[in-house]
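SEQUENCE-TO-STRUCTURE ENTRY
===========================

Subject: a protein chain together with a token-level encoding of how that chain folds.

Sequence line: the amino acid chain in single-letter code, read from start to end.

Question of interest: how does this chain fold, as expressed in backbone structure tokens?
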Amino acid sequence: MDRLKGKVALVTGGGRGIGRSIALAMAREGAMIAVSSRTTAELDKVAAEARAAGAPDTLVIQADATKAADQRGAVKAVVEKFGRIDILVNNAGGVTTRTPQGLGAYTHDDDTFADNIDLNLNSAYWATAEALPHMRQHGYGRVMTIGSGYAKRSGGPIAYTVAKHGLIGLTRALAHDTAAHGITVNCLCPGWTNTQLVNFEAQTPAFKAMVESENLQHRIVEPDELGPMAVLLASPESAAITGQVISVDGGYKV
């Protein structure tokens, strides 16, 4: 308990799934919690849960992750309320398409490609670029990007896979440039996780069996299993961990 006491954390895409679980895990360790997403209905519930879990204070921010002004504005809102930002979890992401043709090599359209890069890669850059000067000023910063099993391998939708690979490059480049300022930057990669992004309840038994076969534990990871690693990476004792790609995925395609 209290490993993050006095720290301020912003979790983008914090209304559900992995973002919600990370926000609540940090709340249990005493952090002040800000959560952002396009809609606030889910965020209000997460903020209430965070306060009940131990967060001294919370902030709900409406922000569209595909818009630079919104992502930078979310960081500005955190600093305005709390006077600082110590932890940034770039969790917002997913798959979006403008056309019914999908995201394959022969059906991709330019706008859909750009949309997915904005949602999964540029969003992390915009928020991080806004947060880093504040972290440097206070001599403490913990930045996390949330990758994917496809951040290190092929097989996913093209733009999504490209963006998630890009997060690893962004993580390493930022870690290199911020290491002397008390800031760490790491990429936390889940594999198949029980979130609304996949909606396993609506999938066939055959699909579930295929998913479970792809990791060593033959199971689907729960969002709450990402929380403890995120807390470690956010805490003072993780000072020597930076520029790393860390998987919590049941041994996905090892």
User: Anything to note?
Assistant: The chain has a mean pLDDT of 94. The chain has one domain: 8-248. Helices lie at 17-28, 41-53, 68-82, 110-138, 158-178, 205-213, 227-234.
